[in-house]
Structures are given as C-alpha cells and as structure tokens.
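**Discrete fold encoding**
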Amino acid sequence: MDATFEPWSPAFVADPYPAYDALRAAGRVHWFEPTRQWLVPHYADVSALLRDRRLGRTYLHRFTHEEFGRTPPPPEHEPFHTLNDHGILDLEAPDHTRIRRLVTKAFTPRTVAALEPTVRRLAAELVAGLVERGGGDLLADVAEPLPVAVIAEMLGVPEPDRHLLRPWSAGICGMFELNPSRETAQKAVTASLEFSAYLRELIAKRRTDPGDDLISALIAAHDEGDRLNEQEMISTCVLLLNAGHEATVNTTANGWWTLFRHPEQLAALRADHSLLPTAVEELMRYDTPLQMFERWVLDDIEIDGTVVPRGSELALLFGAANRDPARFTAPHVLDLGRQDNPHLTFGAGIHFCLGAPLARIELAASFGELLREAPTMRMVGEPEWKPGYVIRGVTELRVEL
C-alpha cells in the first residue's frame, strides 16, 4: 500500500485526499500495520460493507474477547466501555434493534421538526454576537455552541449546567481516535464517570417530574412491555450529544474553510441562498467530518480476491469514498449545486445516523444565518488542524466582517 497514508502526520490530517487517491488506485483493500486494520477506500465497497451483516460494530454479541482473538480492554477503562457499549452506535441485533426502536419512539420526526424554531433562534443569537463583535473565532463562537445548546435543550439540561457538556463530549470522543494514549483514555474514563453520574441524577428527577424533553420521552417510551433500562438511557443521551455535535461542529468550521478557499462558489451561494440545501450536502461530501468508521469482521469475507479473516478490523474510509471518481463526477471539484450526491457522511445500513435530520436543520440554520447577517465575512489567517484524524476538524477559524 501507499506510504502516504499517515494518520498521525499533521500534513496528512490537513489534506488526506491525495493519499486517498493513491490508495484507491493501488487496490480495494490494504493492510495497515500500525493500527492492524484493513483500509477500504472505494465508495462501492464502503457502501456495501456498511450494510453487510457479516460485519459488526461489536463482536461481543457472538464471541468473547478471547474467542475473537482480541485482548480485553484494561479494567481501568471499564467506565468508558460500560457507557459506550450500551449505545446503539456500538451494538448489534438483537439489542441494537430493540434499543433503536425504543429511542425512535422518543426521537420522532415530529420531535425534530418541533426543534427547528429553537435551532433558528439559537443560530440567530450566536451569529448576532459574532456580527456585533466584528468577527472572532467562528468555531468557538458559532459552530460549537449551537449543536451543544440544541442537544442540551432537547435533553432538558438546565442552562447553568450546559458548559459541562462540551468538555465531557471531547473527553469521551478522544477514545475514538487511532491508538489513543494513556492520558486520552484517562480523560475519557473521567468524563464517562462524571457525565453518567450527572445524567443518572437528571433521569431520577424526570421520573418524578416529567417534562417536555427527550429524557422524559425516553423514560416513557415502551414497546410490548419493553423499556430502556437506566444504563441504556444514559448511553443514548451521551451518544446523542457526542454524535450530535462533533460532526456538526466540524462540518460547520470545515465547510466555511472550504468556502473561503473557493471564492467563486461562495459568491454564487451568497447571490442565491436557494442553493443552501445542496450546498450543505456538498460540503459534507467534499470534506467529510468523520473520516473513518470501523467494523469488526464476524465471518470471513473476501474483497477483490483478498480474504479478510474473522477477527480482523476494517477501517472504512468515508473521506476516500466521498471523493471516489467511480461514483462522483469531478469528485475533487466543489459544486454547491451538485444534484447526484449520495455521500456516505451519515453512514448507511442499520447504523445510519439517527440524528441526520436534526444535523441538516442545524447546518441550514447556521450557514443561512451567516450568509444573511455576515455577507462580507472573510477569513483571517490559515487555520491549524487538531491532531485527531478520525474526527477531523480545525482548532479555530478566525474571521472578520
């Protein structure tokens, strides 16, 4: 395989796309020794494998760690794994089916649609502050606070506690990077313990005093006598925060960074705001916020003549798939009016992102508000990238009006 795939290299994180081109040209599957994973860079393969039931986000519904040839996680990481392993993102049937069905009863299209006025109001307040100050850091001032405020509002987290959410989420999400350090793991464990304790208390309050919020709806959700247990509720709330804002934050900041580097496309969008729906989809395709999604191989599979044995881990490269010329015309061209755009940014199959409709509402609200209220916004200096590759984003995005 091509040596330019270097997920710990700042230069690679800043622009992984040439390496993806080389990977796709070199074949359909590549062994990557540093993480002991098989890399899959082609759209057709990534799309099919996301739906393939011979793969799983977990293997514990079928095998022990030892049977699967894997070392169990260290006991000191247990609080993180208890939290993570009870959320639908890391479960397979039958648990995934049961929990997703119950969560969907609470997180309905009507619930999401009802949030739209709140999302628009929050976006308007954040953008008004940025405009009033004549600029600032688009990431810290608009991109980060909006989805956190929306999730907090949705869960019924009181205003004075909302500042706790972002650090907890960042701490937990550190464990999704490749080969996380001991310090990263410790932060994740601490955040898991603190966030779980906080939610346990909030759930207890909602049991005695239900409100018009998602936690109350999760408590009430039942199906043929089945309900979510407390750990499943806690894990669901944490997943909604983590998945519901990390990707949205990075889509917003990375998206504006992309627009600033494509002034003709930005000018076209500023001149015609009706382009916004296709623009949001294209920005998600062009610079994917979640570059890699992993799957365990539960039964031997074959990719282009290579047998990938049970016990292996596949790294499905979303960023490479979303720039595959076999699926997208002129994939390296930013086309805000692109019509044929079945990007894989929200995944596919049973793990397709539950929050995709809400993410689209948030992105439309923040981009739309900035286009209307800050039509002369421009970038100041070039941003630096965070070291993480899997959840990929800039450290800040300085702008002035």
